[in-house]
Amino acid sequence: MKKIIHTKEAPAPIGPYNQAVLAGDTLYISGQIALDPVTGELNLNSIEEETTQVMQNLEAILKAAGMSFDHVIKSSIFISDMNNFGKINEVYGRYFAEDNAPARETVEVANLPKFVNVEISMIAGR
């Protein structure tokens, strides 16, 4: 059985999908971009601020499901320019202990929703 996870602490979906779906003990979080959940505006001031907003959105969804970054099993990072990898990785790394970090892939793509620079999705489990 699946349970839809939704929180006002993260941006509302901009299409026919949900913020996350809990299936048993596994949480599937949709890709998050740097939308501020309060203003609905994109936070594109710098790649560091953009990535921080993405991680804050993911954290809010994890909390809504009763989880934290410690529960993340796998992350998928999509970026529009691999030259930003180092800065994105630095911000991303602040949210995980190295000995408990999830599996991950980082992929450069031609474009992302709303022409942002980074989108991250996650799978977490209890």
Automatic annotation (TrEMBL):
GO cellular component terms attached to this protein's record: cytosol
Protein name as annotated: 2-iminobutanoate/2-iminopropanoate deaminase
Alphabetical list of InterPro entries matching this protein: RidA, RutC-like_sf, YjgF/YER057c/UK114
Pfam families (UniProt xref): Ribonuc_L-PSP (PF01042)
Molecular-function annotations in GO: deaminase activity
NCBIfam families given in the database record: Rid family detoxifying hydrolase
Origin: domain of life: Bacteria
Family note: Belongs to the RutC family.
Species name: Sinomicrobium oceani
Coiled-coil regions listed in the entry: none
